[in-house]
Design goal:
This protein is of the alpha/beta class. About 35% of the residues lie in helices and about 20% in strands. The chain binds (2R,3S,4s,5R,6S)-2,3,4,5,6-pentahydroxycyclohexanone. (2R,3S,4s,5R,6S)-2,3,4,5,6-pentahydroxycyclohexanone (ISE) binds next to helix 7.
Amino acid sequence: MAQDIGVIGVGMIGQEHIRRLDGGPGGSRVVAVADADAERAAAVAGGLPAAKALPTGEELIASDAVDAVVVTSWGPTHEQYVLACLAAGRPVFCEKPLATTQEAARRIVDAEVAAGRRLVQVGFNRRYDPAHRALKAAVDGGAIGAPLLVHCAHRNASVPPHYTRDMSIADTAIHEIDELRWLLGQEIVAVQVLAPRRSSRGGELQDPLLVLFETADGVLVDVEVSVNIHYGYEIRCEVSGETGTVQLADPAPVHIRREGAVAGLVPADWRERFALSYDIELREWLDTLAGARLPLGPSAWDGYAAQVVSDAALQSLHSGGRVSIELPPRPGLYATPTAW
Ligand code: ISE
């Protein structure tokens, strides 16, 4: 069944998703857009064959023309739009983070549980990246025995001017938080954020950060978060197990050896590095909407659990101490595994 999609928030990631959703393989179309910047909404709608610009996200959600909603607006507005989708019974794909506090994320979980059916998917795209899927398959298949340690790096060449210190956790490391829960199939029980000497390139930001996580089974994880690394965009992950290690390979398609040096291309940014993951993520979401695939991807519960860890990491960033984390019981609606 073709899907008519409404998109709230048509900035960079919104436009990335629109490109994939409009005229997609299953006949999906973008039929409505809304944005805090009405001129931008009109310009984006003008470039699409079937889309109208609507004045507000709420009107878009209420529109009979829309089968499902994509929320790619500014993080603090996610809660209001996702709650409105739940109230209207509309399936919704919400970019990460699901909300900006655990209390807001919990209100979404509670509303979905009260509605009694899964309508929310969160945009944790690493779960759809072929390299990350291969990493997980190796760990799950026992290729390295029980995982003991994980070493990750999350490096951005630069970040936009509106990027604040807390976003290194709430907007950037939140990907590793979800990735680790998914990869290891366990919850994170403690976090500590350490701040080394600051990069002179980071302005007011505390950049880089070293984030240490402990999981329920005692796996220790270190994550370097650098957001002004200059040379390009890089995501690393290596799992060290009882009998071996497994790591993400260099994403460069080729390595050139010349004049005494080896060179391989480094992606410029996350759009380039994760292009395929966004393709797969949205295709699978459309398949789920069409009833052709079960279960849904990362749930509101996954968004909430990641937010609890993110809030604890922010607390540690501000206090410097180790923060313990305890999640409340997972509601029955989320008992069926999403991806683990
Ligand atoms: C950005 O919002 C993303 O989601 C990217 O995947 C991430 O690598 C980057 O750090 C974020 O700012």
